[in-house]
Amino acid sequence: MPSTSTPRNYEFSAAENVIIRQLVDAMRFVAAASLAVGAFVLILGIAGLVTQGRSAVGPALGDFAEAVVFVLIGLWLQRAVDAFNRVVETSGDDITHLLDALRELTRVFSLQRTVLVLAAIVIVMAIGIHGVLSLG
Description:
membrane; about 0% strand; transmembrane; elongated; transmembrane helix; mainly alpha
């Protein structure tokens, strides 16, 4: 049985590092934009509470949930960016850094999958409720 602690010394070539750098640049923008949108939505939720009081609690809770999703995506993408940067900027641990980046991307896509499944459930429930109410 092979040892699980064998070193993985693969080093990406200069051409491969260019591809990774292009990914890093795109991800850095999306991470920053996600954080900015999250902050903006949070501010909108707070502003709604301040200006409309208790009547805005429902929408504000939705805003807060949306802000959390955007902020988490932004933070996890930034952590993936940092790991991909280490692939390009260091030598000797490219595979380890690549796996770190992939772990962070897994978090992003797992969260998005959860949000999409929840949205689909809400849509199906809304259609069902609308159908029941339109019968009566």
